[in-house]
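Re: that backbone. Tokens:
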């Protein structure tokens, strides 16, 4: 066998499986390799070199970090608060029909109105758990309810793009003539024109195209029907999950919880419960391979947090020593060998605390001069207290830098400038927008489940969108957009208006209204162009209208 034959055999492609033997939901090709994540019977072993931060030990560490440290809490809420305050909308598919608009309204009501649990509470639990712990698990609970929907009826357009009046005849809604209509002019007479061949020089400019009256979308209330809708999103705390069961492709099959249960007689025990993945909604941050535990945003902040915690303990001891001092007791020379006395006195000094009722009693007389006796004093350490503030400031800054919010310190005191903070915030805003898309994509899984149960024939699903996360200077944006339009780099067509609305987080323009307004803009632009052309430009012979050149004549001297 030659070299080329060996290479051909080595890189030979496996034959494709017979699709006729497959069923819907089966893998087309079974996985050959694996991600490499170690998972022994549901016990994940993440690629983490610090044993203290390996799951499940990491849960306790991150819980302590987020609850006890102000800098950590501030940095986390810099990421949580913008997402909680963002505008949330349910958008229908592109060019949605009436049924898809009904499905969109159902999803909006199921998430934001009909549930027993406020959506804000669920969102805070999801983001506030996924970020510090790396994952957040929920079990959706459903209920059956009789509800009615109110949807906007689509505006039907005829072949000319005009709204069609309601009724069976399908006649278009009466609109003024598309052409220019002069004040008081009969619609049956020809409109004014600027064509000099028809009207001659000095014809009146064409009038503006009258704006058609766009009917408001009609709200239609549908008859009540039974819906399987959301009751609440019940959280499954990270500290209760003991097993992550996956299949050969690394997909989550189920989780196993260890939850407390109450037994007869008032006692408490623990029970292991397995929940299938199809009954769960799992949020994972920075998933690496098949690590369903994810990665905490506090991972990179662990080292500065640990140093900061140690520094604060040393600082507290230093202030205590300098502020309270060290208690010192003097034993008479003739009692130095009394071990019982020494032990008793040492215990009293150890238990001595600064407070309103702290005191010691010694047998007299007090030691003075050459007279033996007991004596007591508070000794203060020599020198000043070390300056801990620069080190603590540095560590606080490192904690915020690990979560991309270091810019929050700039512009305050002697640290940086506000312009620099605005520049660094761009990366942070991008990270938040990416995080919001990740959250909405996972909630879209829940949306598809709700739609499949209530509308089994629907093939396109509505989606959840977050907007308003990035703070934008509307004045600067409006000025830039106006400059681009004046330079004819942009035109106020439908895509441009949609882009402007999306960038400034304005409500989405209705599709029917957008089509009508786009037609009006185009007609008005064409009419404006026609009204300014041919009014004063009289066609003449260039040879007759050209300015004669001055002849050069020799002037006699």
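Recovered sequence:
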């Amino acid at each position: 066998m030659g070299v080329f034959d060996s290479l051909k055999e080595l890189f030979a492609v496996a034959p494709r499986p017979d699709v006729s033997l497959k069923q819907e939901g089966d893998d087309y090709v079974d996985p050959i390799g694996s991600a490499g994540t170690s998972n022994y019977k549901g016990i994940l072993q993440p690629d983490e070199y610090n044993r203290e931060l390996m799951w499940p030990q990491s849960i306790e560490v991150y819980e302590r970090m987020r609850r006890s440290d102000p800098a950590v809490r501030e940095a986390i809420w810099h990421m949580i608060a913008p997402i909680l305050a963002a505008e949330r909308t349910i958008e229908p598919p592109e060019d949605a029909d009436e049924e898809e608009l009904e499905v969109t309204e159902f999803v909006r009501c199921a998430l934001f109105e009909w549930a027993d649990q406020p959506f804000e509470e669920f969102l805070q639990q999801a983001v506030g758990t996924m970020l510090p712990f790396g994952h957040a698990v929920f079990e959706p609970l459903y209920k059956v309810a009789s509800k009615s929907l109110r949807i906007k009826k689509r505006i039907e357009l005829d072949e000319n793009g005009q709204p069609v009046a309601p009724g069976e005849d399908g006649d278009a809604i009466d609109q003024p003539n598309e052409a220019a209509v002069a004040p008081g002019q009969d619609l049956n007479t020809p409109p004014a024109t600027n064509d000099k061949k028809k009207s001659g020089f000095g014809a009146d400019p064409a009038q503006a195209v009258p704006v058609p009256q766009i009917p408001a979308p009609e709200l239609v209330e549908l008859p009540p029907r039974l819906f399987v809708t959301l009751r609440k999103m019940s959280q499954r705390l990270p500290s209760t999950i003991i097993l992550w069961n996956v299949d050969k492709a690394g997909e989550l099959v189920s989780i196993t919880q260890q939850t407390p249960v109450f037994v007869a007689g008032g006692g408490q025990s623990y029970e292991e419960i397995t929940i299938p993945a199809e009954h769960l909604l799992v949020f994972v941050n920075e998933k690496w391979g098949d690590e369903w535990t994810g990665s905490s945003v506090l991972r990179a902040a662990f080292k500065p947090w640990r140093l900061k915690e140690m520094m604060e303990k040393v600082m507290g001891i230093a202030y205590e020593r300098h502020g309270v001092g060290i208690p010192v007791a003097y034993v008479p020379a003739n009692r130095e060998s009394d071990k019982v006395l020494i032990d008793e006195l040492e215990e009293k000094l150890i238990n001595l605390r600064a407070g309103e009722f702290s005191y010691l009693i010694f047998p007299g007389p007090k030691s003075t001069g050459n007279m033996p006796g007991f004596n007591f004093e508070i000794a203060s350490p020599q020198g000043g207290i070390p300056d801990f503030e620069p080190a603590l400031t540095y560590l606080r800054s490192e904690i915020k830098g690990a979560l991309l919010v270091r810019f929050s310190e700039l512009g305050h005191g002697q640290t940086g400038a506000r312009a620099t903070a605005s520049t660094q915030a761009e990366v942070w805003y991008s990270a938040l927008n990416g995080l919001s898309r990740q959250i909405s994509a996972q909630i879209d899984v829940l949306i598809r489940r709700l739609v499949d149960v209530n509308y089994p024939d629907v093939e396109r699903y509505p989606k959840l969108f977050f907007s308003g996360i990035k703070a934008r200077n509307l004045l600067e944006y409006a000025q830039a957009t106006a400059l681009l339009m004046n330079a004819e780099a942009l035109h106020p067509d439908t895509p441009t208006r949609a882009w402007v609305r999306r960038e400034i987080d304005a409500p989405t323009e209705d599709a029917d209204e957008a089509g009508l307004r786009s037609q009006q803009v185009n007609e008005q632009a064409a009419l404006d162009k026609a009204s300014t052309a041919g009014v004063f430009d009289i066609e003449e012979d260039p040879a007759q209208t050209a300015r004669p050149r001055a002849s050069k004549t020799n002037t006699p001297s």
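The CA atoms of residues 340 and 346 lie 10 Å apart. Residues 156-182+189-213+472-532 form one domain.
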